[in-house]
Amino acid sequence: AKNGLGEEAVGLYHQMHRSGVVPTPYVLSSVLSACTKAALFEQGRLVHVQVYKQGLCSETVVGNALIALYLRFRSFSLAERVFSEMPYCDRVTFNTLISRHAQCGNGESALEIFEEMRLSGWTPDCVTIASLLVACASTGDLNKGKQLHSYLLKAGMSPDYIIEGSLLDLYVKCGDIVDALKIFKSGDRTNVVLWNLMLVAYGQVSDLAKSFDLFCQMVAAGVRPNQFTYPCLLRTCTYAGEINLGEQIHSLSIKTGFESDMYVSGVLIDMYSKYGWLDKAQRILEILEAKDVVSWTSMIAGYVQHEFCKEALETFKDMQLFGIWPDNIGLASAISACAGIKAMRQGLQIHSRVYVSGYSADVSIWNALVNLYARCGRSKEAFSLFEAVEHKDKITWNGLVSGFAQSGLYEEALEVFIKMYQAGVKYNVFTFVSSISASANLADIKQGKQIHATVTKTGYTSETEVANALISLYGKCGSIEDAKMQFFEMPERNDVSWNTIITSCSQHGRGLEALDLFDQMKQEGLKPNDVTFIGVLAACSHVGLVEEGLGYFESMSSEHGIHPRPDHYACVVDILGRAGQLDRARKFVEEMPVSANAMVWRTLLSACRVHKNIEIGELAAKCLLELEPHDSASYVLLSNAYAVTGKWAYRDHVRKMMKDRGVRKEPGRSWIEVKNVVHAFFVGDWLHPLAHQIYKYLADLDDRLTKIGYIQGNYFLFQEKEKEQKDPTAFVHSEKLAVAFGLMSLPPSMPLRVIKNLRVCNDCHTWMKFTSEVMRREIVLRDVYRFHHFNNGNCSCGDFW
What we know:
DYW_dom; repeat; Serine Threonine Protein Phosphatase 5, Tetratricopeptide repeat; PPR_At4g14850-like_plant; zinc ion binding
């Protein structure tokens, strides 16, 4: 047992027991110590049973060994039970309890036991003081620690290397760098532990210069760095964002033979993965022979941080195959990975593993689970888990808000946002970003402005992420001027800021402004990315800049080293298609270096419908239906393409094909908010309580529009027989009904804001222009592709959409 051969000691004990030899208390103490050191918990419990049967529980030496065993395995309740049943406790008993509680972070419990020790008449020794200093460091109780330091000096205890280390650890963890430096300078300068602790001190304040200066002094003093020295420096590099300097420390650790050290490798994996050098982190993990839970967990967390969720779950699986049981951080990271890709099935498996692992009370895991269920759209389970969290923190609340916002449950996200305020929980950056995004996706500008006011009151307007969310809010709600104002008032802008304003201007028909902003972005030294070019190409498409758009597309790879994605190819097809250059668009698709996806063919088919090109339209439809045979939009586009060219038999054939395949067309629907209530309309809708008044108002309005030149044009999709058989109101599109209701209900000074789930048709677009002129009202229509601002008979798109 004394030489670390725990299993052999326990095996010999069992032979002794079978031979009928009764063990002495000293032997039982040795066997229990062997179980503790060799992590043989169950064997230790069996020995405890023998102790109980032989009536040796009252022996102090045996009780001390039992306490050490249970504390080693964090069975604090069993340790306390043994302690309370001991008739006599010595200094070792108290020191064991104090030391283990301090090491486990239970500083307050350690200090309480110390008070009990004093009341029992035992004076502390160096071991006691060292443990108490650790307890004070864990609770941040600097005053209590200073009292212990004074006691040491008054009692005349000569500080050994353990006391020196504990004192320095106290001052370092409590952030008292000045006194820490005094302890360091007065201590044993050959003790590598003191050097390491001082490196930690400078690392806590991210003082990279002093850290490296101290490291140079250490080397000059002849003190050899150990496996804990390099991690201290590497962590400081990580905090300071000096990844290149960290790479040099990595090289130094290789030269000094610490590359394969488990602790050094774990910190290296953490550093590289945090800054996105995932390949390098993965290579370190692969060559590491003695992988521990920290190494695996750092890799998993790095993958999750950079949204490589599938890789994170694969690594999590490999860790278990390697025989490593995940800890609370590993489980929380794996759950977050499941949330990232909405892998609910895997999430449920890990959820059940949480209970088996004994981490069911861990707050970080509960927070991750709340976010998982919310992001997967399982609102009931998410709320249930949320309510079950006893000590909710900001992460718990934000996990629910962001989870709902990311899963499309925007109303639920805003509901939790309001409850958070009612509960007195302070908002932070993550709360505001999620709630503003939810408002933006609902196009709820009123709610968004209220949140914006709260942002201003709480001083978060200067936060870049919040400002970016506000730009997106106003852009998605049709208030492009407010979006621009928010952008230009930002103290600092990143690539997301520029991408958001460029895309917003593009969607609002301000293509030239978007391109001007793109030039400004490059002048300010920001590098455009693939998202930037989506906005730039869309801007060219919406204002008919064909050659300019093709030039920007070519520059992606030639100037910026960006490989175009299918979305970029679809944008180019859109540029050519809107301009009526359909042969050129088809040739571009055929010469693409990658296979055209559904988006590319759908874009081409849509252009063919507008420009009445059946030949290319049929080719696009054929390819599209092979890729997405159950997508209703594909059939509708082809059907309408036949209708506009008068090919009714072909149109009817497409409709029959839809019916035979069980494909249902998504009905057109429009929304408008009036007096805090959102009103929804379908085509030919009679379900609204004011339907009769709406249709009468619409008929009167159409008469006025006709007098100034409006001609209804949506009948071209129907044959004469169909028109005669149907009620004329059945052809009235939902956006017309929404606008009519808005004109009836809203004050003349208020713009009408309408949302439609499909692309606005030619007739409704023309009707909106005439209506804005006759009624002298601004109408903002957001369809599935872009915004249309109608004013004084004109549209912001310039009739090019």
